[in-house]
Fold this protein.
Amino acid sequence: MQDDCYSFVLKFDRRYSMAHRLISGVAPNCSIPHGHDEVVKAEVVEKSNRGLDGKTNMLVEFSQVKGRWFEWIDKSVDHSFHLGDSDPLISYFQQNEPEMLAKILVTPGDPTTEIRAACYAAKLGAFLAKENPDYGCLKMTIQETPTNAVEFRPSLGRVVEGGAEHWWNRPDLSINNFSEAA
């Protein structure tokens, strides 16, 4: 899907703080928990490309496509700890600090910027499918550091493996599967 296929692309971004660690061994410097102040940038399109509303001269009111997304970033993702689903720290938190589980974002495999961009795109897609099904995520960008970013361009379908049981496919505020979120 190319940006130039659409008359209008809505773009919005949000800054948040997070921590993560990568345990696969590919990035040894990232095996120790560390944090980033990141900016996530979403691009949304109207799937049928019908153009502006004749009465409002708008594609859609921005709050209709970014409201729940910003709520999720602000309440769930900001100041969360991102771990891969096989990280032994998950067991530590389950046994010793279960009250912290709501702030543990769990990804399939290491929580790289790449997989998180795909999970975030799926999450935004789930919000849009529930609240504004005419719209879809065209692009998701995570600016991890001032010099490193990942851009993910999903199709308007599923972007990460797994069904509705995974947090990234549910239109709720969850960031893991430890319990159902609001």
Observations:
- The mean pLDDT is 91.
- The CA atoms of residues 73 and 147 lie 22 Å apart.
- The radius of gyration is 17 Å.
- The helical segments are 62-77, 89-96, 113-131.
